[in-house]
Amino acid sequence: MAQHAFVTGSSHGLGAYLAARLAGEGWKVTGLGRRPESETPGTPGVDYIQADLSRSETVERIPALLGETPDLIVHNAVSYPPRGAQEVSLTELDDVFRVNALAPYRMTLDLLAAKPDAKFTSVIVVNSESMYHADRDSGVYAASKAALRVLTASLAEASRSRNAGVATLLLGPLADPDKVEQLRRVADSRGVDQAEITRIFLRKSNPDLVIEELIDFEACYRSVQYIAGLGRTANGMVCRLDGGSAGSLI
Ligand SMILES: NC(=O)c1ccc[n+]([C@@H]2O[C@H](COP(=O)([O-])OP(=O)(O)OC[C@H]3O[C@@H](n4cnc5c(N)ncnc54)[C@H](OP(=O)(O)O)[C@@H]3O)[C@@H](O)[C@H]2O)c1
């Protein structure tokens, strides 16, 4: 029987890519996003749940909606603050923290509690190197991801002696199509090679990283495959695909 994967934030970006790749490899995939299904890629093999993870009712009904706890859970959904740090309201702050940190934490607790001991479940929590580099604009997002990292460590601790692995996939700037297109336009307008514009962009936007190319979605998928394939050994693991210098102190 096909293994079951649950991918949050599957309606767009990296989540859509991961859901499609898993389905292409024969997984039965349940994806979740906020927009209506008609506005998603509609990938064959991906069942879609339209739901808002900032709402408690959604989070509470996920185990019932999924039925048996999936073999693989990828917490990928992300809420970026809708406006600048100085203007963001308390309700908006709440939304960011719920989607990015609290919902994955609560859902993982509930889904792991619901599974039989004999069944192995791999939980992969997508995080961002931004949590190490907060400035006044990125502070809210970075703090939500830092909270997610700490909660993930606690989930891994709670998963000791349990048939589960809870790991972090820590990513740097992704080659999402919008970003790539913007860089292409800048390169065209200046008559410069796109790779060179990307290098300049990364040096300016992420001076602490040593990468000169954006991280492609396929590398993220292969990391998900790798972590899931490690089984219980991956419990507590942080897989950094972020361009962070391994020798630097945090
Ligand atoms: N983009 C980067 O450069 C980058 C770098 C490092 C790490 N990451 C991490 O990679 C992951 C994916 O990022 P991305 O940039 O690909 O994201 P994205 O394109 O903005 O997509 C975010 C996904 O999360 C869903 N989502 C947002 N709010 C939700 C809510 N309240 N309820 C349910 N679903 C909700 C969105 O659904 P709708 O669109 O349908 O609302 C969408 O499917 C995130 O965990 C992010 O932190 C990204």
Automatic annotation (TrEMBL):
Matches recorded under InterPro entries: NAD(P)-bd_dom_sf, Sc_DH/Rdtase_CS, SDR_fam
Does the record carry Nuclease as a key word? no
One GO molecular-function entry = oxidoreductase activity
Q: Which CDD domains match?
A: SDR_c (cd05233)
Per UniProt, which keywords does this protein have? Oxidoreductase
User: Carries keyword S-adenosyl-L-methionine?
Assistant: no
Q: From the Swiss-Prot or TrEMBL record, give the protein name.
A: Uncharacterized oxidoreductase yvaG
According to the record, the segments passing through the membrane are none
Family stated for the protein in its record: Belongs to the short-chain dehydrogenases/reductases (SDR) family.
Q: What is the lineage of its organism?
A: Bacteria, Bacillati, Actinomycetota, Actinomycetes, Kitasatosporales
